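Lecture 7, part B: from sequences to assemblies.

Below are the input chains for today's worked example.
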Amino acid sequence: MPFAIRCTDLRKTYPGKPPVEAVRGVDLAIAEGECFGVLGPNGAGKTTTIEILEGLIEPTAGEVEILGMNWGRQGPEIRQRIGISLQETQFSDNLTVRETLNLFRSFYPRGLEVGATIARVGLEEKSRAWIKHLSGGQRQRLAIAVALIGDPALLFLDEPTTGLDPHSRRQLWAIIGDCRRQGRTTLLTTHYMEEAERLCDRVAVVDQGRVIACGPPRELIARLGGNHVVEFSVACAAGAAQPPEFWSDLPSVVNCRAEGDSFHLSVMEPQCLLPALVERLEQRGWRLSNLVTRQASLDDVFVVLTGRAIQHAEKENA
Amino acid sequence: MSELRPASVVRAHPLASLIGARVREFWREPSAIFWVYVFPLILVGALGVAFRERPVGPFSVVVQSGAQAATIQRTLSRDSRFRVRILDAPTSRQWLQTGRAELLVVPSSRTSNDPLGGSADGGSEKGSPGEFESCAYQYDPTQANSVLARQLADDALQRAALRRDAIVVHDQPVVEPGSRYIDFLVPGLLGMGLLGGGMWGVGFAIVDMRLRKLLKRYLATPMKRRHFLGAVMASRLLFTIPEALALLVCARLLFGVTSQGGYGPVALLILLGACQFSGIGLLVASRARTIETVSGLMNAVMLPMWIGSGIFFSTDRFPESVQPFLSLLPLTPLIQALRGVMLENASLWTLGPQLGMIVLWGAVTFVLALRWFRWN
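Predicted structure of the full complex, as structure tokens:
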């Protein structure tokens, strides 16, 4: 299978006291036509990794191959075949959407027609509007249009929906979904698990500069051992003080953890667990104060793999 | 997705579209228009009016009230350059001290047997010998106008007292275009505009693009770096044309300022100056990563030239010891050359040293800027 992106043992250390190891040995192999997500908390090294792949940052060590080419020897050829949306680029405020796309179109020997690209991202009505008058979601759609204008075989999108409202996010998901259907390989970074689950064929979960898990989202979730999560809290102090392992012998439970004052149990079949859970609580005379059952998500994968919730990991990195 | 087929339309040349984008961005930024085009014109208007050619004076002269005050007032009033008032002693002193009067004339107080005392209407057309015996002048010897007023008043009073001049002199007033302050100022403002244009139009603009990550975004495309830098330089030269034209036309229409050496050499100097300051602007912007850094650097570069390169007044006013440093500033040779052409009809050959300095500054800064330039 031909690879659109391949990198081995990618490392990036920023000099300083102490030196910052942003990327500590990342291996990725992304097939042509795949939509691949790099997932992780802020500060995990996602942007550094993607910018090395985009040829914008020199790696400290490691090999990178893009569309079978090498940045050192074939930089200009690679540039013509990839499209990039950086994390928060501010295009010139005083140019219109169409002017911006015309400008970027002129850099590519072959590419898409500007008007059609504007239509594709749903900005027809704004094509003559100055960029300073666009909303956050419209700017982000413009960034994707600019990434697409050279008709790239490979698309890099760095946090394409961060900071957007749910409606704008859904619009962008639809656009990214289209790109994937057109056979463009897409590499996107995100810290929204939901986004990765929805868009990506495969995801790599990154934490502290390393890939800690990689695979199709459903598979990663299944690897937890259970597709469902049962969350509950116990109203009395004695029950709440129990270690999470206290619940591990209940039927169908594959993983237990405590989060705040509630317990999260990963289970195969919630319908088997629930009667047993209620029975145990009744035996002890403890009262259930809260009960939720839901599908397991990549959030759960992250917590199980790192022992930390993703929000906590972001606070640490900040 | 049929509408997303690769298009085979003819695309614009990247250099042309980059220049087009820069020009549009600039024209759509009202503050840029103001500072680059309107501000220099306001400066020409304001300074031209403030320093317009006018006869010396009028001088405000106060005569302390006393026996001969009225005679002195009448004598001085014959010269239209004097505004003469008679005030009592405390008031007249106060006028002098507060600068409302340039000169205070105190008639002497030998009143008792003053031969002409009290002859309030005794002053004839020419005055008469011995009309005043003595008076005192009070003035500020450090103020040119006060010294001048004292000199002129003294002449008038001495003549009225029938002083005979020892030699015969003739005054021949000369008012030539090119010798006025506005003629001196316009080349200075041209140079200042080029300096500011290079700093704001190149230096600030590039740092702004770096902050917006636009430089990085350009770098991520197949755009050639020389096209980008070429477009920044070319658009700067384009903006220079209306900028210099507005200033020259405005100065000509309002104040009749012309170039003695013609406009061809002036245009060449403007072009060289624009290139020079684009190079310096590029150097200032080559590594700066924040607006604060670039603003500080720009001020550090511009301020010494605003003061020391002779925009508003001649550099000769600075002490001899600092002259070598002033002549090393990049704006100094440009303004000298512009004044040479516009005021003295100097040929470009005689301005060789200045032209050499301009080219050297431009070339060295441009090369250094390219070497240090930070795209990310």
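Note for the exam: The mean pLDDT of chain B is 83. Keep this in mind when comparing with the next example.
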